[in-house]
Design a protein that fits this description.
The chain contains four helices and five strands; from the N terminus they run H-E-E-E-H-E-E-H-H. The chain is an alpha+beta fold and about 140 residues long. The protein has a single domain, classed as Rossmann fold, CATH 3.40.50. The radius of gyration is 14 Å and the shape is globular.
């Protein structure tokens, strides 16, 4: 991804996140090839599920930049059990839960683990990722 395109994607992602309204129940936005964001709001808080493509369609050398981009978005959020909670799914052939909403309450811990998302290669199974994200987003499960 070129630097100018990456800047545009950052702006778009931040606009999506800043436009979250408490009346939203569940929406999915594909922000770039390596990031899917699902937002669920309820009880005065936002639940953000981030899906990270770690398949062969994302070159290994590009993954650290994508992870830094995601970390920068999280860094702009007000993370707490009552404001914004974050869960992360990563996917290639299958979808995997990196962590659920209840696992971390500090922004630093969330960013730490996002930056350590493993590269898997393989096929891009976005459908499996979206299924897991919908389960997380629609139930706002206390999955860790």
């Amino acid at each position: 991804m070129s630097a100018s395109l990456a800047s545009v994607v950052v702006v778009v992602a931040k606009q999506i996140i800043s436009s979250i309204s408490y009346s939203m129940l569940f929406t999915v936005h594909r922000v770039s090839n390596s990031l899917v964001v699902a937002v669920s709001a309820g009880s005065g808080r936002n639940d953000l599920v981030i899906g990270i493509d770690v398949s062969g369609s994302v070159q290994r050398r590009r993954l650290p930049r994508a992870l830094r981009f995601i970390a920068d978005i999280v860094d702009d959020l007000e993370i707490s059990a009552t404001k914004t909670r974050v869960a992360v799914v990563y996917y290639s052939d299958n979808a995997h839960l990196l962590f659920g909403f209840a696992r971390f309450s500090s922004k630093e811990d969330i960013i730490y683990w996002i930056l350590r998302t493993p590269y898997l290669g393989g096929r891009t199974n976005s459908a499996a990722a979206l299924r897991l994200m919908v389960i997380l987003g629609s139930s706002s499960a206390q999955v860790t």
